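Chain A, query sequence.
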Amino acid sequence: MIPFTYTLRNLLRRPTQTVQLLLGTGFVVLLVMLATATNRAMENTLNNSGDTRNVIVLGAGSEESIERSEVTSAASEIISASVSGIYHIANEPAVSPEVHFNGVVDLSDGKKAQALLRGVRHQAMWVYPRVRILEGHFPNSGEVMIGTLAHQKLGVKAQEITLGSTFRFNGELLTVSGIFSAYGTVMEAEIWMPLQDLMTTTQRDNLSCVVIRNQDTKSFSDIDVFTKTRLDLELAIIKESDYYKGLTNFYKPIRWMTWVCAILLSFGALLGGLNSLNAAFSARIREFGAMQAIGFTRIQLMASLIKETTLYSSLGLIIALVVVHFSLQGTSFPFSIGVFVLDFDSYITRVAIFTSIAVSLLGSLAPGWKCLKPSLTQTLRSS
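Chain A, predicted structure.
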């Protein structure tokens, strides 16, 4: 076998070329990690937002968008009195009438920002068990409660929106009374305010939806029967988990576009790396011939080249992991209905390792075969 010190020496023979290969390999691995993390983060955020025990009651024909839905304001009381199997707390049904509105708010510094507003009553805290108030209290009239990632959606720093901060919506001054978390869901990017305040400000008479929390996942049929018998209300129902699963499918083209961009950029970087390796190996053809002349086989030489490219890709992997750990872990990105947070977990690390191995094999086999294929006589005569 060819000593490992020979492989290490080759890495130091051309420092500039080695640095280029390391950065190129690290770039490929980093792109694959980013694409995988982005897809998983968006998918997990949407999937986590849906609770299997929650049912959304919407206007008929609006099953694909809560914001387009309209439900009579009396629907929550009618449902509470007519449907069995609803989860109760202190003898009150966990039924949350809501208005969802995507609007523009005026921040204190004069900037305008797109915001996701949800008008709710206190029953919303019973329907959404993931929601936890971290600071302050549930909003009263003239107040709002913001999610921990709402500042990302608004395009400002977290320090700019804290307890006591104010902004205007449709000319109304609103004060931040609380900050809540709902880790892993789209709700963390929302602004919650009293239901009646949002209905008055947006001049709405109807609700967007009514969200019901059932005793268990088997109570869906009771609500289904109710909506089919009360045709006068023109209601439709969908499980909350199914609603967000549909949104996951809706955003699938965007996720595919992320992969396409990552693959194209990685392919370009990989081709550049292959050219560099091909040039580096081609310059050593006579060296390979000399090593064959003293007794080393082509298989041993190919194994040495694979070890060499594996070292390149391993060091590139380390560079990518360092960049991810110190710069990208926990980075959040807003999209139309929320914010997703990148989490480079063990799965992403395994993907990075697999990518590194694939890059090392692709980078060594083709150039190595080209350089080792000629006969010994041709190799020794090459210039």
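The chain has a mean pLDDT of 84. Residues 4-48+251-381 form one domain.
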